[in-house]
Automatic annotation (TrEMBL):
Pfam families in the record: FliE
Family membership: Belongs to the FliE family.
Compartments, record wording: Bacterial flagellum basal body
GO MF, one example: structural molecule activity
Keywords: Bacterial flagellum, Cell projection, Cilium, Flagellum
Cross-referenced HAMAP family: FliE
Record's protein name: Flagellar hook-basal body complex protein FliE
Record GO biological process: bacterial-type flagellum-dependent cell motility
Length: 110
């Protein structure tokens, strides 16, 4: 229950900060992105690619350990496995936040 209260308080603070920032600024002119700057979709694609690479490296290390290849330590396998798990969980949370933001935008009155 306290997490819900904490989340609501955080959202209220963020909204008040947004309102203050919007009141202080004039509407920004829509400008073209800087040349060479990656777009949001490119950045997201790169992040997904890195998560995939981390998982593949973890699987390769685990397979090498299971096959008994020399130089592969169980601690390295476990660390790689945890890195892959954490990166996947983080990507899942980013996806959840993006979906929630999309739903919030779609529910806004026009």
């Amino acid at each position: 229950m306290s997490q819900g209260v904490e989340f609501n308080r955080l959202m209220l603070e963020m909204r008040s900060m947004q309102m203050e920032a919007m009141a202080k600024q004039k509407p920004p002119a829509i400008s073209a992105p800087e040349p060479g700057a990656p777009s949001f979709s490119e950045m997201l694609g790169q992040a997904v690619g890195k998560v995939s690479e981390t998982q593949q490296a973890s699987n390769q290390l685990a397979t090498a350990f299971e096959m008994g290849q020399g130089g592969v330590d169980i601690t390295d396998v476990m660390i790689a496995s945890q890195k892959a798990s954490v990166s996947f969980q983080a990507m899942t949370q980013v996806r959840n936040k993006l979906v929630q933001a999309y739903q919030d935008i779609m529910q806004m009155p026009v």
